[in-house]
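The aim of this short unit is practical: by the end, you should be able to scan a pair of folded records and say something sensible about each. We start with the first protein, listed as its amino acid sequence and then its structure tokens.
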Amino acid sequence: MTVKASVSISDQQEAFARRLVDEGRYSSLSAVVQRGLELLREETELREEERAALRTLVEHRRQGSFLSEDESHERIEAMIAAKKAQYGL
């Protein structure tokens, strides 16, 4: 089902859309707008999925154990020493 809607676009947007139609990349201005909305929907859904995955990761990490400041410092120093040794420093 399609719905007719009136939208306002800038002169630049209209010129760009018309150029796409004139080049044969889209059949009509409506098709250009529909594709733009579809891309926006896909982008929005992807960002929502990424946020959900990040929230899950953060929650998982929050439930795990944490290192003390001293333990963290010791691990960092050990990583630095290993890298220096790797490069012969």
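Turning to the second protein, read its sequence before its tokens, just as you did above.
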Amino acid sequence: MAADSHWYLKIGHLGTQRNPEVGTLEEIKEWYYSDGDKEVLDKYSRFVIDIIPGLKVEEVTGKTCITCDSPSALPYIDRISPTVTVAVVGNGGGATICDEVGRIAAELSLTGKWNSELPPKLFEAIFA
């Protein structure tokens, strides 16, 4: 529950739509200042309302976002110098795995040690 005593549900567009039409800085600005894709908003809000019986919806609003993809399709969690650690998720999965990425990155940043069963090599930052 939010500070205003309301519940909020964030849903994101899943699937193959990755805003391929957004490529320049001007297009990115235009997308962020827009109301987004009304068809997607209607479709997903209707889906949530339909699958949760008795759900009372006061308002449906949409926000825009853009997802950046890494070449590995995995997040970057890497200590790139003794004082700089990067943690970048992207790839459309940020909300899903942000807690774990943050935990690993915080430990790496504070101690310099990798604390995960997954190998750190998978998450090395790639600078092109």
